Structure prediction request, 126 residues.
Amino acid sequence: MDVNRIFSLKKPCADCPFRKDGTMLPSLHPNRMQDIVHSLHEDRPFHCHKTIDYNKTDKVDQVDDATYCAGSLLYLTKLGEFNLPMRMGIALKLFNPELLSGHDEIIDPKDYDNKRRVSERNDLSE
Prediction:
């Protein structure tokens, strides 16, 4: 694992699940985005799907050379929260949130949370 590579992505990719335009969201399992956000708040990193080696069978091996998703880093930055991997990256001088770009392309955490709550209420009322 190349620790210098972990934070190398500075901008969300075209089909990042955190993008406002939602190009990847339709292909995700219905609750996947909620699971991703939840895991971020539990101090787990979210790896960029383009850097995961899906040819490997072991999940740990799949992300051995993967980078953290820039969209997830921006999402937490916009929220004003840094999870443990981000704080460790800052402490080790591997991550500088000021170098991230694409803030306007990423979903607003507060808007996402409100939409999720409305969706959950609609599911309960059906």
Q: What stands out?
A: The CA atoms of residues 79 and 110 lie 8 Å apart. The helical segments are 32-41, 59-62, 70-79, 84-91, 109-125. The chain has a mean pLDDT of 84.
